[in-house]
Amino acid sequence: MKQILIVEDELAISRVLKAYLERAQYRVEQAFSGEEAIAKFTASPPALVLLDVMLPGRDGWSILRYIRERSSCPVVMLTAIGQIEQKLAGLNQGADDYITKPFIAEEVVARVNAVLRRSASSTGGERFTSFGSLQVDFKAHSVKLHGVELAFPPRDLSLFLFLARHPNQTFTREQLIEHVWGLDYEGSDRAVDLAIKRIRRRLENWPASEGEIRTLRGLGYQLYVCEK
């Protein structure tokens, strides 16, 4: 039975969503603040998070960034804000779907089902992928080379996992910042170059015959993997 984490500070809404999701055969955990959400997400990683934007303490955007730095867990945003700019901001920061209040509970369940189907399809139902001697475990957020786990700082790991999900695709610095750092990042795009440099250092023993992180001048970066 898949577990859903509802992060919603309005008790009545949370109760209704819990009842409908349990009726749909999901196991449900509830959190009513940002801090509680992080604690429950860390203690028992769910299959999907329903995440309200307006929360006491840490808001939904902060929680979304926290999740994306550590996990590919699907996230559906819940908010009373209807502006298209807010919707695009959430999707660009890594949200998988966006539902505006007021909503019908049955619609939320249908969206949850659809997002979980897409998530399983996008990875072929697999948690692992291998590029020769390099093995990536998306669920455990680990990377092994020749059977030995590589140690990455959290942000570098998020960047590498993103590239590994899209092998042989090229991304500009701006696109990588949007997907990994988030739209509210105010630092230099040099952070991408430095992270790539650190990642390459950790992959220095990965045979070039299997793959490498390439720089395409004027275009961006890609995780190039050799065709089998």
What is shown here, in short?
This protein has helices at 11-23, 34-43, 60-68, 84-92, 105-122, 154-165, 173-181, 190-202; strands at residues 3-7, 27-31, 48-52, 75-79, 97-100, 128-131, 134-137, 142-145, 148-149, 211-216, 220-225. The protein has 228 residues and is of the alpha/beta class. Strand 10 and strand 11 (220-225) form a beta hairpin.
Structure report:
This protein has about 230 residues and is of the alpha/beta class. The protein folds into 2 domains: about 5-120, Rossmann fold, CATH 3.40.50; about 130-225, Orthogonal Bundle (Arc Repressor Mutant, subunit A), CATH 1.10.10. It is about 40% helix and about 20% strand. It has 8 helices and 11 strands. It has helices spanning about 10-25, 35-45, 60-70, 85-90, 105-120, 155-165, 175-180, 190-200, and strands spanning about 5, 25-30, 50, 75-80, 95-100, 130, 135, 140-145, 150, 210-215, 220-225. Strands 2-1-3-4-5 form a 5-stranded parallel sheet, sandwiched between helices. Strands 6-7-8-9 form a 4-stranded antiparallel sheet, with helices on one face. A two-stranded antiparallel sheet has the order 10-11. Helix 2 packs parallel to helix 3 and helix 6 (about 155-165) packs across helix 7 (about 175-180).
